[in-house]
Amino acid sequence: MASTKIRNTLGLNPCFHLAKPNALLFNRFTSIGDFVSCFNSAENSETVDSQITSLCRKSNSPVQAKKVFDLFKRSLDSGAVLSESTCNVLMQCLTKHKEYKMAFGVYEEMTSAGKKPTYISLSGLVDCLVYFCACQSALGAVGLMYKRGFEIGVYVANIILNGFCCNGLAVRAEEFLGEMERNSINPDKVSFNTLLKGLCEERKLNEAMSVKSRMECAEIAPDLITYNILIHCCFHEGQVKEAMLLLEEMSTRGLEADGRFYSTLMNGYCNQGDVDEAKKLFHEMLNKGISSDLKVYSCLMRGLCQKGKLKEAKKMFNNMLKDGIRPDAVLFNGMIDGLFKAGMANKAVELFAFMLEKGEEPSNKTYNVLIEGLCQAELLDDATKILEMMLKKGEKPNVFTCNALLKGLFNHGKIGFAMGVFEFMKSDECIEPDSCTVNILLNGLCSNGHLRKAEKIIRDMDEHNAATYSILIGAYFKVGKVRKALKLWNKFLNQGLIPDSRLYGSMLHGLCSNNLISFAKGIFMKMQSSGPRPRTCDYNFLMTALCKEGSLEQVRALFRDMCGGCCEPDVFSYNIMIESTMKSGDFQLGNKLLVDMQRRGLPPDIVTFGLLISWFSKLGMMEEAKSIFERFKSFSLQPDAYIYNALLKGFKAEGNTVEVINLLQKMAADSVPLDAAVNSTILACLCDLPEGEKVAELLPYFSQEKSNRRSTTSDELLVRLKNIVPMLQSSVL
């Protein structure tokens, strides 16, 4: 907690909590002589003031700065009275080495002794307060600087800008940039790049592009850092075309891409699944004489593994060795992660074994990637074996390890074990649960029907964020507790907090699912006017609800907005539109939509074809239904019972016995599992067969065998988990 004196001096809001310097640091050395001797610089005849000043000037590492602070505390404890200049020099030294807790301790001592801080000390205080996530208090410190007659430079302003951005307050940072200009503090390139990075990290690409325009209007030319930030965000948001336009613009400005920039581009393409384009950039980079490094190889090999192109990854691995670049744990981590994402868990484990064979020691991250990947592949049994190996090797699991294990346990319904891991995390000093832990916990409890436990955890929490509210609001809507959900939403807004995309999405989905379409439209309009830009899934939620309601014109209007550039429609968006057009009787448009989605590079799925076949069959348009069915088979998709049921009903209605029998034969050949609906349709078709037909001979045999896959949550796994929890509580952890 910040001292009352400092809060009173600055007029700080008491709701901001600042950490005090660690008292253990004050007693590290046995004597001042031991301390001074390690520097071999101060004469015995010098005063403590001159000693501290001299040592601060010679300090070139955080370790040395800490030792100077230790001397400072011991001097005060022995009754020495230090000068203002000494305190200010020490404050400057500590902030330079980012020892903010100690610097704040010096500031406390200065002000409590009535000493006046200089401009450098006050700017250091701003740094400290930003480090303590107390940006509003940092503004109070700036006010104190003005009060003392100091002029505020762009350096101090940039510290506050960075503080807002690092704390997820990019909107406030943008407002502060305007305040800088109004107070005659001209933002520089660092100011704009800081704000751009903050906006991009909050996935506010449109706002970031506006800031870039604002930067150009201020006659500050974007540099490589600017374009790197924006292009990375474009790839992250799936805006590949926008990224390429920025790349072209960068070239027209005469900016040449360096190795780091190529790495960003290749990483972006690999994350989009376009590893071929990434390879082209790799060869382009080499042709320009830009040498590749381990980071570039890591990125490409991860991308190749994600695509399952193991031979190419192995070839690149050998080329890397020829270039004299030694693989490290980071490279193996990326490849292992890529294999998991490609659904090749066995290959990922094989690569891990190869890594051990080559003598590369797995890092904590390696174990985390393995545990998380195995949990996601529903191989919790194997994940626990990796955890056992980790513990036996003396590796210390961290919060990421525990989070991955928590998620896996919740996904398998092992609530008791999951809560045991969480309790262990709370009791261990080195593994402090983070916001991700809490969200996994809440999501796991809510998904498994333990809403009351989730509510209790939230009540015990000191702070709530948008993600926390999003999970609980979604859970309330899911069980029909609409009033509770709306009450929690209002509570969030009344606290002055800003909803993010996920929270808006939870509200929108919940309202649509509970047929509160008018409220949902209100939320959607709020997103369009002042909130985060609606995502594709947000459009889909509202379009689905409107389609069920019969508001087909509104569905079309929303779809036009999407295609007009608001966001990219996906396969689900097209499926909603196809259902909407077929409901309205516009069959021609339904077929056009099927063609259009393929032009956009969106392959139709089984739902797309099912909708078209079902509607054409209902309307007796069996030639069209058959045509769609033939196109369906060309996509190598397996028809399900729903599609066969629709076709059987259509052919039955027109009395086409031959087609009915042919379909039954195809169903048997495809081993389509029969449900109650399709059984009923088959019986009705057989009853309609003309007299004299040999039904027994015509009807094929349908196999009803079910897979008997052994569950990973076996008794053997439960025994292993029971053994691991005590290990977590008593081993190196």
Question: Can you walk me through this structure?
Answer:
The chain has 733 residues and is an all-alpha fold. It has a domain at 362-463 and 712-733: Alpha Horseshoe (Serine Threonine Protein Phosphatase 5, Tetratricopeptide repeat), CATH 1.25.40.10. Helix 3 packs antiparallel against helix 4, helix 11 runs antiparallel to helix 12 and helix 24 runs antiparallel to helix 25 (435-447). The chain starts with a helix and ends with a helix.
Kindly report the CATH topology of the domain at 362-463 and 712-733.
Serine Threonine Protein Phosphatase 5, Tetratricopeptide repeat
Q: What is the CATH level 1 assignment of the domain at 362-463 and 712-733?
A: Mainly Alpha
Give the helix proportion (percent range).
over 70%
Rg, alpha carbons: 32 Å
The total of helices stands at 41
In the CATH hierarchy, what is the superfamily of the domain at 362-463 and 712-733? Tetratricopeptide repeat domain
Strand fraction: under 5%
Features:
733 residues, mainly alpha, Serine Threonine Protein Phosphatase 5, Tetratricopeptide repeat, 41 helices, disordered N terminus, disordered C terminus
Quick overview:
By secondary structure, the protein is mainly alpha-helical.
